[in-house]
Amino acid sequence: MPETVSPGEVAHSLGHKHHHFGGPRAELIEIGEAILLAIVAIATAWSGFQTGKWDSHQAHLYGLSNKYRAQENRAATLSGQQRIYDTTTFGFWYQQEIEGDHRGAKLFERRFRAEYRPAFDAWLALDPFHNPKAPPGPIFMPQYHNAAAARATAASHRASEAFDAGTDARERGDKYLRNTVLLASVLFLTALAQKFRFESVRIGLLSVAGILLAIGIYFLITFPRA
């Protein structure tokens, strides 16, 4: 007597065949997943390493900037003190000279700083007591030079350069950090694909993960390295 097959059994059999995930094709997909996971693991580690390197470089550059700012402040303070000293001693010299006390004027003149004297001599050469076009004092002469002020300016430039470089390092580290998040999404999609038994869904998720991985690797290749 022929055996009959109910419609329910046919539907179950078809559904089982539709959900079944096995055979050579499945093995190839699993090999692809393993390769994808290996690549993304290496890429994620490298991206995280570069993030840490750039963060460390940023901290170093910001530290240099603070160091140069401190040097600038010290040099600027010294420059201001020396400028006050130059102006004060010149004021006393001028007063003695006007009063005709040349001996007292010579006393203050000997107390001029070495780098102030060239400007003072150049100012005297203009006959300032009779020349109304002469500058009001030696500090207004082009020969007036203050080494501390020059050091302050140089330190200010170095501080600005170090700070700008630190900002660039921070931005580059942020790029690697965002790339690490992108690569983490590849890991998530690959792990999610393994939960599905539908071959088409699994391949689709792996395809998206592969595209994201390619983008992440492109960024790793093109981003500057610390």
Structural commentary:
The chain has one domain (28-222). It is built from 6 helices and no strands. It has helices at residues 7-19, 23-98, 102-109, 117-124, 147-193, 199-222. The longest helix is centred in the N-terminal third of the chain and has 76 residues, at 23-98. It starts with 6 loop residues before the first helix and ends with a helix. The model is unreliable at 1-20 (pLDDT under 50).
What structural class do helix, strand and pairing data support?
mainly alpha
Task: Please tell me how large the radius of gyration is.
Answer: 39 Å
H/E topology pattern: HHHHHH
Outline: rod-shaped
Distance between the termini: 80 Å
Query: Mind describing the biggest β-sheet?
Result: none
Query: In percent terms, what proportion of residues is strand?
Result: under 5%
User: Which parts are unreliable, with pLDDT below 50 for 5 consecutive residues or more?
Assistant: 1-20
Count of DSSP H/I helices:
6
Number of E strands: 0
Give the number of domains: 1
Question: What's a quick, concise take on this entry?
Answer:
By secondary structure, the chain is mainly α.
